[in-house]
Amino acid sequence: MKIIFASNSNFGLMVSEKLLKSKISLTKIITFPDKKIGRGQKKEPLPLKKFGIRNNIPIEEVDNIIHFHDVIEKEKADIVVVASFGLIIPKKTLSLGSKFINIHPSLLPKYRGPTPIQTSIVNGDQKSGVTLLFMDEKIDHGPIIDQRKVIFHQKIKYEEAEKLLAQEGGDLFTEKLPILKEKTNATPQREEEATYTNLLTKRSGLINWNESAKIIERKVRAYNPWPGTHTKVNCKNLKILEADVQLQTENCPSGVPGKLYLGTNNTLAVQTGKNFLLIKKLQLEGKNPTTSKEFLQGNISIIGSTLS
RNA sequence: CGCGGGGUGGUGAAAUGGUAUCAUUUAGGGCCCAUAACCCUGAGUUUCAGGUUCGAAUCCUGACCCCGCAA
To answer: Is the CB of A223 less than 7 A from some atom of nucleic acid strand B?
Structure first.
């Protein structure tokens, strides 16, 4: 059976790794061409391409939907698996005869769109899941083959959630593969329950200190490593890598949101719209990541200034 | 050659040509019912290779490494 795997994300990479472990052989991987990346603008193959090379899976580098159409037309694969591919596949391509299966890291119809994992963490969901569905021309809209739930613990971070969901997604696909050949039952999504997620930008990670510490702390977990949660101190970029919420008692001093205090155990505490955010790990522009305790050993004078 | 910051005790930072300093750490001692608190004493550092200089962490050249932005 010919299976093509199309993805451009780390999630896709992890799913394909899981499939490899489950002895599912992919006929071809479709991913974006090498991009200029990092300092120095060196061209670097995307992780999924490297994965393909390592495991002797043919790669097709595709960066537009016309080229994608041609590849699908030529290959005549039985199944095309798509996991956060980044291009919207038109009906013309979907009706070429291959079965298009999407692995989406949320419990559809909740969290359609590009950032389901981040959104569920920001919303404080206790559980999420992964959905296997047939694709149609609308985004994350097709009939559902099956779903798996994944429990999110209290302090789950993006990368951990992504890994859990990718593994569960790989398992789910592996399990359903035998019946995908035949006529498969699939349940249409309940349209009235659909919610959508938005694309994140670098700006999404800019912290608004008027928000509550609870929300900011969730964003710290959801948005790292990208776009990262950042703020400015003395005109320099400061990334918040790890944080906690500290409840504010009534007799605690209360200042403008963004103001820095010395917290318990020599950590950095920031006044937010509601309660304090305890910064545990941070990174100043041009510097290595440090714990806030270490950071304060040489930067104690920062206490009292305000983040913006 | 996309733009930029940086490399100083184990860790985080000062010192911009003249005795390398501070915090933390660590060893020992003191105080105390007790302590991660407080006091005293000690330990430990300029990434590497050249160059300029009476003298370099500091200025110049080269190498290696780390990081922010942008993509």
So the answer is: no
Q: Are residues A164 and A78 in the same domain?
A: yes
| Strand B nucleotides, any atom under 7 Å to a protein CB | 1-6, 11-14, 22-24, 66-71
Enclosing domain of residue A234: 202-302
A233 and A167 in a common domain: no
Residue that finishes a domain, picked among A193, A214, A241 = A193
Cβ of A21 near strand B (distance < 7 A): no
Asked if residue A74 lies in contact with residue A38, where contact means CB atoms within 8 angstroms, the answer is no
User: In CATH, what number is assigned to the domain containing residue A284?
Assistant: 3.10.25.10
**Residue A167 and residue A270 share a domain:** no
Instruction: Specify burial of residue A102 (Cβ count, 10 A radius: 0-12, 13-18, 19+).
Output: buried
The phi and psi torsions of A51 (rounded to 5 degrees) equal: -60, -45
Asked whether residue A287, judged by its CB, lies under 7 Å from any atom of the DNA or RNA strand B, the reply is: yes
Residue A302 Cβ under 7 A from any strand B atom: no
Whether A79 is in a domain gets the answer yes
Query: Do A16 and A26 touch, CB atoms closer than 8 A?
Result: yes
Q: Domain ends where: A158, A193, A228?
A: A193
Among protein residues, the one whose C-alpha sits closest to the C1' atom of B5 is A286
What is the enclosing helix (H) or strand (E) of A17? helix A10-21
Per residue of chain A (308 residues), what is the pLDDT tens digit? 899 999 999 999 999 999 999 999 999 999 998 888 878 787 888 889 999 999 999 999 998 999 999 999 999 999 999 999 989 999 999 999 899 999 999 999 999 999 999 999 999 999 999 999 999 999 999 999 999 999 999 999 999 999 999 999 999 999 999 888 776 788 999 999 999 999 999 899 999 999 999 999 999 999 989 899 999 988 889 999 999 998 877 666 667 899 898 887 788 999 999 999 999 999 998 899 999 999 998 888 888 888 88
Q: What is the pTM of this model?
A: 0.88
Nearest nucleotide to A301, CA against C1' atoms: B13
Whether CB of A110 is under 7 Å from strand B: the answer is no
Residue A308 lies in a domain: no
